Each structure stands twice: as structure tokens, then as C-alpha cells.
Amino acid sequence: MPDHGTQPKRLHSRPKTAVAVLFFGLLALVAGVGISVSFGAADIGFLTVWEAVFRYHPDLTSHQIIRELRLPRVLGCVMVGLCFGVSGAIMQGMTRNPLADSGLLGLNAGAGFALAICFAFFPGLPYGYLILFSFVGAALSAVVVFSLGSLAKGGLTPVRLVLAGVTLTALLTAFSEGLQLYFRIGQDMAFWFAGGVAGTRWTHLKIMAPWIGLALAGAIALSRSVTLLSLGEDVAKGLGLRSGPVKAACTIIVVVLAGSAVSVVGAVSFVGLLAPHVARKLVGIDYRWIIPASGVLGAVLVTFADLAARTVRPPYETPIGALIALIGVPFFLYLANKERREL
């Protein structure tokens, strides 16, 4: 049974604040989507955007730009942010690791290496198979990272888990670059290393959407169990939770979300680190609120990062991953400093 010191923490939640975070977060997301769809090389006003969405005329060039280029790009940002935010929240709650993020733990690198193999040995694969390979790469990376982190004396700690992830990321990135040079697939891989959503099309979103929808539904269904896991293994078992099957299901969800996101945006880290931390500070420790809040905040972050990527040095684009890292790296160093005693 949980002790008296754990009980107050278990009950600490702010549902009213959570509702406000979701409401204003969605408002910010809608505003970001509207601005992003309107902004670009071609000057297109809000009224034209509205008409292109709800009264589409295929003969108008401005409508074609909105429907075929800008809308799928912006919706890709939303979906990627949701994936990274929710996967980061689940990883942090499941492992009780404040440093958990799909990029820091090697899942992004694993998915990217799998894509490099596809480009090198199976050129021309349909996008659906690329997503499948991304899932496999992310899953294998997760297994390797957790295994490596558990080998050290004292077991798996947050910092050791991140060190294992960073090590594997460096190794897989080197392998990916080797394949890139040997098979001359640099043009294909440059996008994945830089990170961006410029190439997102409706076909990509249609293939991604069912996977992401199922994973998000599973994340919401397991949110109470993740809350119990975040209180500690003993507390969770004392409250009747079968932690093994729950962790397995959570891992599958994280792999699906991370693999889907990487297949669209490439090597982008820190979204899954930042969004859950901000959500947790605002809404408390109940993952029934943290998971949806992390998804919304992640979507807002990626959407505005993509908007910034197009405005920093026009007409060129700055990689999204670089812009998010400007915030994510200092935040990660701050968290790592708090965890330094775990080394």
C-alpha cells in the first residue's frame, strides 16, 4: 500500500486548469494553423484561405496552393506534434524518467536508420511501407536502449537511460550517414536529418491517420494506468495494476507514435521532452489530463516552429529540429543537472 508521503501526490491534480490549458491551447493551435496556411511565398489572404477550404475551385492557382501544399503541411505539423507530445508523456510516466523523449532515447534514430535502409536497398517503396519500417526501427531501438540502460550496476536510472539512448543515436546516425554516402542517397536522407514537413502531402496524412488515431485512443485508455506507474512500481502493484502488460501496451503506443512522426518530419527531438513537462507543471500529475494537454502543446510547438522556420531567413527554410533544439537543449541540460546524482 502507498505510504502517507505518496498519497497527497497521488491526489494532486488541477482539472479546472487542465480544461483551461486544453481550451486556450486549442485556440492557439487554430490561430497557428490559420496563420501558417496564409503565410508563404505567395501572398494569400484569410478570405481566400477560407474559400479554398470550404468552397474549393480547382481552376484557381491560390486554391491549389492552399489545398495541395499548405494544408497538408500544416496538418502534418499538428499530427507530428501530437505524436511527439503524447509519446513523450507516456514514456516519462511509464519509466518515471523526466528526461524521456523519443529523440533522446534513440527511437528517432532507429526509425531514421530503417528509412536509410529502405532508400538504399528498396528504392521506390510506397509510403505505407516506409511507415512500417519506421515502426520496426523505433521498436528495435527501444529494446536496445532499455537493455543497455539496465546492464549497469544499480539498474536502470533516468540518466543511464538517456546515455544509452544518446550512444545508440550516435551509432545509428553514423550507420545512416555511411549508407547515405555509399549508396548516394544523400538527397533523400537530407530531409530526414534536417527535419521538416515541407514534403508532406495528403497521401502521407491518409496513411498516418489510422495508426495515429488508434495509438491516441490507446493512450487515453491507458492514461489512468500510466498515472499509477508514475507513482512507482510498488504503489501501482499495491493498487492492483498489472504493470507488465500495461508497460508492453504503452511501449507499442510510443513506437507507433514516434515511428509515424519520424516518417513525416524526420529527426526532430525535444518536443516530447518539453510538452509533457509544461503540461505536468500546469495540470498536476494525473495523466488523464497530462496526455491530452501534452498532445495539444506539442502540436502548438511544432506548428509555430514550422511557421518560424519559414520566417527566420526567407525565402530559405530553417530546419524545424534546429529551432526546437534552441529551446530543448537548455531545458534538457537543466533537467540533466537535477538528475546528476543518478550517475
From TrEMBL:
Q: What is its main location?
A: membrane
> The organism sits in which domain of life?
Bacteria
Q: Which residues cross the membrane?
A: 21-50, 70-91, 103-122, 128-151, 158-175, 211-232, 252-275, 287-308, 320-337
Instruction: State where the protein is found.
Output: Cell membrane
Annotated keywords: Cell membrane, Membrane, Transmembrane, Transmembrane helix, Transport
Under the heading InterPro entries, the entry gives: ABC_BtuC-like, ABC_transptr_permease_BtuC
Q: How does it sit in the membrane?
A: Multi-pass membrane protein
Entry similarity comment: Belongs to the binding-protein-dependent transport system permease family. FecCD subfamily.
Give the protein name, as stated in the record. Iron ABC transporter permease
Query: Source species, please?
Result: Paenibacillus artemisiicola
